[in-house]
Write a structure and sequence with these properties.
Elements: H1 4-25, H2 41-48, E1 51-57, E2 62-68, E3 74-80, E4 85-92, H3 98-102, H4 106-117, E5 125-130, E6 133-140, E7 143-150
Length: about 160
C-alpha cells in the first residue's frame, strides 16, 4: 500500500521529469555552427521544418541563409565566399542552444557570461569579446535576440553592425 506521503513524492518526481523533458524538447534548434561550413543548412531546415531564404549580400561579400520557424523565430547565417559561416544572428521566442549555435566557441562565450555574472546587477544582455569571437546577446521570456561573429572571418570592409 502506498502512503499519502509516498504518493505525493512520486507525483512530484514525475512532474519534475515531465518539466525537464519539456524544457529539452522546446530548446531552439540551431543551424550550421559558427565557424563551420554551410553544408548542413538544408539538413537543419528539414529537421526544424522551417522555411529557408537565401539572399545575396553584396555588402557582406557572401550570402545570408535565413531560417523561419512556424512560431515566427528566425536564425540568420552569414556565409562567406569560401562557404564558412562567419556570423550568426537570431531572433527567437526561446533561448537558443548556444553550445550548438556557437560550436567550439561556446566555451569562450560561457566563460565571458560567467565573468559578467560575478558583477553586481541584473543581466538581461551580455557582450563577450574574447579571442576571435564576439557574441552580443539579450533576452527575456518570449524574446531572445543576438548575434555572434568571428573577427578573423569578417569580410574586409564589412561592419559588424550589418549582421542583423
Amino acid at each position: 500500500m502506498i502512503t499519502s506521503h509516498a504518493w505525493k513524492t512520486r507525483r512530484r518526481a514525475t512532474a519534475r521529469i515531465a518539466i525537464a523533458a519539456a524544457s529539452v524538447a522546446t530548446a531552439a534548434p540551431a543551424l550550421a555552427v559558427l565557424g563551420g561550413d554551410a553544408a548542413s543548412v538544408e539538413t537543419d531546415r528539414l529537421q526544424m521544418r522551417a522555411t529557408r531564404q537565401t539572399a545575396r549580400a553584396t555588402v557582406l561579400q557572401g550570402s545570408v541563409q535565413e531560417m523561419r520557424l512556424a512560431d515566427g523565430s528566425s536564425i540568420r547565417q552569414f556565409v562567406n565566399a569560401r562557404g564558412i559561416v562567419y556570423a550568426v544572428a537570431w531572433s527567437t521566442r526561446i533561448k537558443p542552444d548556444f553550445a550548438q549555435l556557437l560550436g567550439q566557441h561556446a566555451a569562450t562565450f560561457d566563460a565571458g557570461v560567467a565573468s559578467a555574472a560575478r558583477e553586481p546587477g541584473l543581466k538581461r544582455s551580455v557582450t563577450v569579446d574574447r579571442d576571435d569571437v564576439v557574441v552580443v546577446s539579450s533576452g527575456r521570456p518570449g524574446a531572445f535576440v543576438g548575434r555572434a561573429w568571428l573577427k578573423s572571418e569578417l569580410p574586409s570592409g564589412a561592419s559588424a553592425d550589418a549582421l542583423r
